[in-house]
Design goal:
Blueprint lengths: L6 H7 L5 H30 L3 H7 L3 H10 L2 H14 L3 H5 L2 H27 L7 E2 L3 H35 L10 H10 L3 H4 L3 H22 L3 H17 E4 L8 E6 L3 H26 L2
Parallel strand pairs: 2-3
Antiparallel strand pairs: 1-3
Helix pairs in contact: 2-5, 3-4, 4-8, 5-8, 7-12, 7-13, 8-9, 8-11, 8-12, 9-11, 11-12, 11-13
Length: about 290
């Protein structure tokens, strides 16, 4: 593994590397995230009415899902405030140089986007006739810029917190990647464990998220910026949130919905191996694009 490009992020994190600072920083980030996200959600509810609450929680309407996506951006705010207050680190120290971040992100976006488009074509042959049009095409195109922005905010915020702040601060304390890629991936997996939604597949979904955390962390360390991880996350969620989604939860902005929902446990279980394989192929495509 070649992680030399990650050295600048680690060096900056080593200025104030104490674990107690990281623990307090995580607590501070959580408080900022909860307070600001609640403010945004309450503001949206006050303007739209109480019935809007369920569509926000489930992401089942365009407006509700947009509010949910943008509210998740508060994770980045919390992480960046924690990095500044507890470690005296600015945004570029956590994310990487802006020009390099954008350049690497665009390269991965094109590569992974092409792979996922091909996989979508191949996999959709068996279910296209059963897909349902979810949002009228005209409305979908109108909402697409907002949807893309919302997904970018949501995925970027998660990467800033997990692969940006947490991973780099742990790397400042431990030499082995096992101890700085591993913990953030475990926390990321725990955040995606949803037994109430996925039933018996909740563990499989969480393991997929954990693998994503490992591979995104690896790309971050190989490239030295969050650009590739954000691009990998963004392309995955654009497909799953804006193009073809499961019926029900988080379907408010998707053009099509599949003929099954998260509660159809046998179907989800059968699809999980394909999802794992697709994630690994996307990671390999990103590495080829970056030549790392």
């Amino acid at each position: 593994m070649r992680y030399d490009a990650y050295a600048p992020r680690i060096a900056e994190a080593r200025a104030k590397p104490q674990l107690w600072r990281l623990l307090v920083g995580v607590f501070l980030a959580a408080i900022v995230t909860m307070m600001t996200s609640q403010m945004l959600l309450m503001s949206a509810l006050s303007m739209a009415g109480g019935d809007f609450a369920q569509t926000i929680l489930g992401g089942t309407s365009p407006g509700g899902l947009l509010v949910l996506l943008f509210a998740m951006g508060t994770m980045a705010l919390g992480a960046l405030i924690a990095a500044r207050v507890m470690h005296d680190r600015g945004p570029e120290s956590v994310i990487g140089p802006w020009d390099q971040t954008i350049r690497q992100g665009l390269r991965v976006l094109v590569a992974v986007g092409a792979v996922q488009a091909l996989m979508l074509v191949l996999l959709s042959w068996g279910v296209t006739g059963e897909m349902s049009l979810n949002v009228p095409v005209g409305l979908w195109l109108t909402l697409l810029p907002l949807g893309l922005a919302g997904v970018l905010v949501q995925t970027g915020a998660e990467e800033v917190l997990f692969r940006g702040y947490l991973q780099s601060q742990l790397a400042a304390r431990f030499r082995s990647p096992l101890f700085w890629i591993g913990p953030q991936a475990v926390l990321f997996a725990m955040g995606h464990y949803a037994a109430g939604t996925f039933g018996s597949n909740a563990l499989g979904i969480a393991l997929w998220a954990g693998l994503f955390g490992v591979l995104a962390g690896d790309l971050t360390a190989r490239s030295g910026t969050l650009g590739p991880a954000i691009a990998l996350h963004f392309t995955n969620n654009v497909l799953a949130i804006l193009v073809v989604s499961l019926d029900g939860v988080l379907s408010g902005l998707s053009l099509f919905t599949l003929p099954f929902s998260a509660s159809d446990e046998d179907v989800i279980a059968a699809a999980l191996p394909v999802d794992f394989a697709g994630l690994i192929v996307a990671w390999l495509a990103a590495r080829v694009a970056l030549r790392v």
